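This is your field. Have a critical look at both lines of this record:
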Amino acid sequence: MAVPRSKIDKDIPEASPCLSIVYHNIEELDIDPKNPRRHPKAQIRQIARSIEVFGFNVPILVDVRLRVVAGHGRVQAAKL
């Protein structure tokens, strides 16, 4: 279901009812400070090594404001 236009900032494009893959620079993504999962530095390094070996196989899920919904650890690992 699309988010009503009145609930979206005017500078953010209309939400689409379907999913799509859009590439963004990692710096554009906003980490949610209320994310309940915490990743220790050792785990972030493990994720980074996995990305180096296997590639970035699982997309990061974001909302219309580019706030990360799922993939906080992958974002931190990609920044390494």
Remarks:
- Helices lie at 41-54, 72-79.
- The chain has a mean pLDDT of 81.
- Residues 35-80 form one domain.
- The CA atoms of residues 1 and 17 lie 5 Å apart.
